[in-house]
User: Fold this.
Amino acid sequence: MTEQTAPSKFEQQRREKLDKIRQFDLDPYGDRIDGVQPAATVKAAFVDDAEGQTARCAGRIVLHRDIGKLIFITLRDSSGTIQLGLSKKILEGQWDFIKLVELGDIVVADGQLGKTKTGEITIWVESITLLSKALLPPPEKFHGLSDVDMRYRMRYVDLWANPEVMARFQQRSAMTASIRRFLCEKGFLEVETPMMQTIAGGAAARPFITHHNTLDIDLFLRIAPELFLKRLLVGGMEKVFEINRNFRNEGLSTRHNPEFTMMELYQAYADYNVMMDLTEELVCHLIERHCASQTLSFGELSIDYSRPWRRARYADLLKEYGQCDMDDMASVRKRAQELGINDVNKDDAVVVNEVFEATVEAHLINPTFVIDYPAAICPLTRQSKKDPRFAERFELFVGAMELANAYTELNDPVVQEANFRRQLRGQRDDETMAKMDEDFITALKYGMPPAGGLGVGIDRLIMLLTDATSIRDVILFPLLKPLSAKQEQET
RNA sequence: GGGUGAGUAGCUCAGUCGGUAGAGCAACGGCCUUUUAAGCCGUAGGUCUUGGGUUCGAGUCCCAACUCACUCACCA
Assistant:
């Protein structure tokens, strides 16, 4: 995989062809081409039997059938494929060059459109130009690249060797564009807040640390934009959202990448009930627009997104699936021990939540809003006025995966400051580097309107809507251990 | 970090009870003007991840290391 070794025999053969092409006085790395049409558009616009239709398509040669004096090429561009037919009779003068064109090369071709006798729409090529000579051979034409590690490392091959990969990332782009349009049409303002922060707040996660040389200070890559977006509420932006990366220095899994895309939004004068309606509307809007059905498969699961979605209280779900009662901590601790959870020296709220995660979450397949979390685990959320033991917070679970998290924002600076201090006392030194964000408290003291806030994990949303069971399949370049590190470890 | 599975030709994969390494695609040389993963004939291609061990003999069995996947743990 490293290029320090001598070129493979395949590369040597291709370099020899490249030299031959240069001997024809042709440049194997061509220039700008105007008027290129997408393959899918050309095929869709083709009128059967009509004379004189021409097309210009460019792309990569993914199949190559040489029948002697006739060559059929399947050209792939980002829209799909189209067949080129090259006849020696038409291209007599270029034939020696054409015989050197091979799998993996990128070409542009012009010609008359027609159909072969098997009905395939074909460009009968009158001129063909090499735009980029491939020095490395493509992977196996039928199975493509299937080694998972290699696919992620060589996404530039994966994208054209496995068309469903291209399709999924095109879907992702279309879906995020729809999210932006949906929110903008509702009057939300898209903003960008710092990715590098002097205090990494808004969530409980270990941050990445970096350093600014001129200021000689350590900075943290953000773990959440929350505290900055709320400052914008104080500033008078009543509806704001941001779609951007968060960075968390935690483990990797099929559901966790160290950098991931989060959409957070805040709406003044709203609460978590408004956020629930909005979340449901947003996701269903995406499904209606981009998916074939309201029931989507996700790996082995089948998920029904039809509205309304289930809304269930945290405490009730704990009774239903966890067989214990939050009001009876003895029963919860007993259950924790049965589950093998170490509950020694842990707060009641923490033990409850561990039992919840162990027993409830796996059952939440169809979209389910889990509402009214224990206030003790929600330092940024307003407590319920009816029952202060609970916070006005929901998490949305789909496919047993946490997809969204929202709450009625806490806007009382005194309570907020007390919550921060309690949180700092409870943290273990090795876990976080959390510091009190005094400036955020100051902001709240100027008055933040009551508001609802929502965070949606965009990668996970795309996973669910495109049936990708690994987050690495919806991130173009997921974090991988570098190959150089591998080699160093081996020596 | 724990558990399970995997690592064989450029790619996708076989390899039986431990007995001299196989196919398809790609490549190379031929033939072929309507193919659809084109076809036919021929050629070449291997430190079986690495290092030990058992054995007359190891791709195969044992041990260790490395890498990957899944999974658990960690993870608002």
Notes: Chain A has a mean pLDDT of 89.
